[in-house]
Design goal:
This protein is of the alpha/beta class. It folds into two domains: 15-100, lambda repressor-like DNA-binding domains (434 Repressor (Amino-terminal Domain)), CATH 1.10.260; 112-140 and 173-299, 2-Layer Sandwich (Endonuclease, Chain A). Helices cover 49% and strands 12% of the residues. It is built from 13 helices and six strands. It has a six-stranded mixed sheet with strand order 3-2-1-4-5-6, with helices on both faces. Strand 5 and strand 6 form a beta hairpin.
């Protein structure tokens, strides 16, 4: 196949297929379809008409925000002049794989729709950098701590719902020990570690877990002390994901109470990358942060 997705075989197999599942495949396919459309000088409006949809849907499709139907992909390929059977099969095969549910779909009863994207992106990432101001990073939470966090948002929820949310969070953590998993670089505000989620014993165990994880080769953990002040005051949690897949740009993930933002414009990413660099520079290095963690653990 000549001009189908770079790094994607005629069967739609790629690095992204092995790491990140359908979420990443949708983004890769959407990026390739956008490149085809732009290279032919075709507007989003015209593309929308070809699949009986609006230009807004084409935008969502090209961003990978929605699954691409095989029929729509076939119609767009015809509009874009892609007639080679092998090349068309590659794109349509990719669309088919992108429509396959990810492992997280089994938790759809307790998982908000906006969370699905970050789960796939985490699995595909080569590097995940994050600054957390209120809670311990989800990828480093113990079951007891995660239960306390999940309970905050479930004042009227059932024990089953809380348990399912914790199961999802722990399943999410499997990527840490998986061969070829991402490198993690986290900065945690000390204030988050002073908040006794789940009680003192739970916090002591949680901080001990952070100490243990900080010794894992591919994990860098820094603690931003309270005296760091404005140097680390960025307003909220920030996560930046970087990928090996050439069709995936760096993505900034901003989680809010009932939604999330995914930013991939170069100017946005560069801004948050500078913020992240500033936070990492202001915080003590990993070795000094380990000493802070030990002090905090002993205080509980």
């Amino acid at each position: 196949m000549s001009s189908a997705a770079e790094g994607v075989t005629p069967n739609g197999e790629s690095l992204a297929n092995r790491r990140g599942g359908p979420t990443v495949l949708r983004i890769v396919l959407g990026t390739q379809l956008r490149k085809l459309r732009e290279s032919r000088g075709i507007s989003r409006e015209a593309a929308g008409e070809a699949i009986r949809a609006s230009h807004a849907k084409i935008s969502r499709l090209e961003l990978g925000r929605v699954a691409q139907k095989e029929r729509d992909v076939a119609d767009l390929l015809t509009l874009y002049g892609v007639t080679d059977p092998e090349e068309r099969a590659g794109y349509i095969g990719l669309a088919k794989r992108a429509g396959t549910p990810g492992w997280w779909q089994q938790y759809s009863d307790v998982m908000p729709s906006w969370l699905e994207t970050i789960l796939g992106l985490e699995e595909a990432a080569s590097v995940i950098r994050s600054y957390q101001v209120q809670f311990v990073p989800g990828l480093l939470q113990t079951a007891e701590y995660a239960t306390a966090v999940a309970s905050l948002g479930e004042a009227s929820g059932s024990l089953r719902e809380i348990t399912r949310k914790v199961e999802l969070r722990l399943r999410r953590q499997e990527l840490i020990t998986r061969p070829g998993g991402p490198k993690l670089w986290f900065v945690v505000d000390e204030a988050a570690l002073l908040r006794p989620m789940g009680g003192r014993a739970a916090m002591r165990a949680q901080i001990q877990h952070l100490i243990d994880m900080s010794r894992v080769p591919d994990i860098t953990l820094q603690v931003a002390p309270l005296e760091a002040g404005a140097a680390t005051a960025v307003g909220g949690p920030v996560t930046i994901l970087r990928f090996l897949e050439p069709d995936l740009p760096d993505i900034v993930y901003l989680e809010q109470l009932t939604s999330a933002l995914y930013l991939d414009k170069r100017s946005d990413v560069e801004h948050y990358m500078l913020v992240m660099d500033r936070v990492c520079t202001a915080a003590p290095n990993a070795e000094d942060s380990l000493a802070i963690l030990e002090r905090l653990r002993d205080s509980y």
